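User: Structure please.
Assistant: Input sequence and predicted structure:
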Amino acid sequence: MWSALSTPLLLGVIGLAFLPARPFAIISTVLLWTRVVVGIEAAARRHLLGFLLGVVAVAVVTMVVASFFLSVITWGWRYAVTGTFWSLAIILLIANVQELGRD
């Protein structure tokens, strides 16, 4: 039943993107419904955990990129680059400590 409904539903949701009123609201609605449809598809195929991890990863990357550009606008590029290197150093330190624990 879901296979008969998923493709027409997804095409209908994508069709909303071409409405002329309030483009940001329409695009965010299309993205939300697309994630819902793909999430249901992933649950039906028993790949829901991988889908949720992918959504979280995309959200984290989006937030990191947005915070970088916001810090460039707010404080200048030197502080943004410094913050990026500090963040990478912390991530690398955590990964190295975890690997030491495995050995």
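Residues 86 and 92 are 10 Å apart (CA to CA).
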